Predict the structure.
Amino acid sequence: MFKPTVYWSQGAVKLIDQTRLPHRTTMVICRDLKTLATAIRRLQVRGAPAIGVAAGFGIQLASTRFKGSGRRAFDRHLERAAYHLAASRPTAVNLFHVLDEMKALWTGAPEFSVAQLKRAIQAKAAALYEENRQVCRRMGDHGERLISDGMTALTICNAGALATVDYGTALGVFYSAKAKGKRFEVFACETRPLLQGARLTVWELERAKVPVTLICDSMAAAAMRSGKIGAVFTGADRVAANGDTANKIGTYSLAVLAKYHKIPFYVVAPRSTFDFRTSSGSGIPIEERSADEVRGFQGAAAASARARVWNPAFDVTPARLITAFVTERGVIVPPLKKNLKRALCGHG
Amino acid sequence: MFKPTVYWSQGAVKLIDQTRLPHRTTMVICRDLKTLATAIRRLQVRGAPAIGVAAGFGIQLASTRFKGSGRRAFDRHLERAAYHLAASRPTAVNLFHVLDEMKALWTGAPEFSVAQLKRAIQAKAAALYEENRQVCRRMGDHGERLISDGMTALTICNAGALATVDYGTALGVFYSAKAKGKRFEVFACETRPLLQGARLTVWELERAKVPVTLICDSMAAAAMRSGKIGAVFTGADRVAANGDTANKIGTYSLAVLAKYHKIPFYVVAPRSTFDFRTSSGSGIPIEERSADEVRGFQGAAAASARARVWNPAFDVTPARLITAFVTERGVIVPPLKKNLKRALCGHG
């Protein structure tokens, strides 16, 4: 059922083009780094975990394209590739984690030949891919216990198979609950400006036969007040050491509304989304994107082309609004700073 | 500067077609009641005060179209017209107020000839039109005191000239503040699904040279958290006796967020928007509109055509979240039930 969102095949990185879903399922075939970096910037591939895996394949792509035999030239070539990829999305931390892990391969093994290093890079990219698949299933299994029979869960953006290799973070929790035979429903926020909820989450959940109702972002509060919502599940783009969480713009709004309505608010994110070098949310850079995304949608203009716009792609939800994190190492509850460090900082 | 949104001219009701703004300024010319009721349903004319004035002209339209001379037939004809108009939007109370005032003309003056009653209807519709213009300016003058120099105010939907005859409720406050020489800015929520903020409010404020920044509805919380927002100003579609306020979906969300961020939340509404026969918000019927409004964006499809949708057009903000009402009789603060009754129930 889960076709991979991003994978390596025949010397290229292949991606489902998420800007065309749900109307067309087409692939982007990246045979060079520039195509891949552009695909990340344009959100043809998106979701912090999927971007991380794509970045690993990006280094592999740069590696296979190198035709020389000198390590110094190879290392410089790889450094440039990492730099190029790092510039594509500033908020998703998985990207930087992966680039750091890749860099450790060449900085840590100066004795390797170019051929040996190429094999190590290939093996690492494949391992990151496989690890993401496993981690999503483990998060799903831990998180599904938070879904009770008859519950309606609310989600925002797409924290699904399309945001990972193939199962999802927040939506992975729903897939695991479904697999356990639980009956529940999902309300999906459409997620302006790029409508990942309407386009991707509804598509994914319908395919998985999870009952889903689409709402505008502004309707979440009214849905909560009417008693429809039992819990909120979101993904994350970067979590600081204290639990402050950057995620799709609108997530913070849902967290405040959930607090007001006494509804639990869960963040589902793999360990690779945690950034223990950033102490709090104020240290997370927030990408601002093009005004045209807000002025219209896919070519349909709402406001005039000169309307002034504020378009932050993410917001930061302070840890105090988060009921718990669902990770591959289990459900982590407050006090978050202490418990996140204890659960995630060691090697497990 | 303010061309009327709705007016009577040459035997017809003329409306700016708000579904085509800001890209095209075209008029809908209603020579019969059906065209007018359809225009209300399709939101070619919208905003509770503008709908009220349009309904007055609607009765005038029905009246001028009547060619007989018998009062009984005329009264039946007018009753049918009122019934037809009442069915067009269930939430906007101004519509029902106006229809009640119109009905009082024929039920209260059985001695009038058809010609006399026609003149009375024409005079009443014209008076409602003129009254709305005056009331908006009075609200603006009371409300502008709440705008401080350097403030950024947040608004949702379009509570402007386009929602009234020609000046606005919430936006009228901004026009009055501007006229007083105050420097301030406005953040406009785009207001999904029909984008009245992006399409109408940005257009109006740009024309009036009030600096305006467009945001998606989901960005309001982040804007508040960043300290950008000094106050929220909204219009209303119906206010119950206790101050509970039905307004565009997303208003309740802003009210909760404003409370959390300790930002004042003001509702700007004329007396005709208050419904003292409805004791609380739970008695206000909430119109649910077509799923297609949420599935797409100005004709561009986002979700699949079979996606299940929840699309309430309005939500109810409980009185406890409202800092004050701005009315033509002044700014009304809590305790709201008592103070609204005292200020608005008498004839002033």
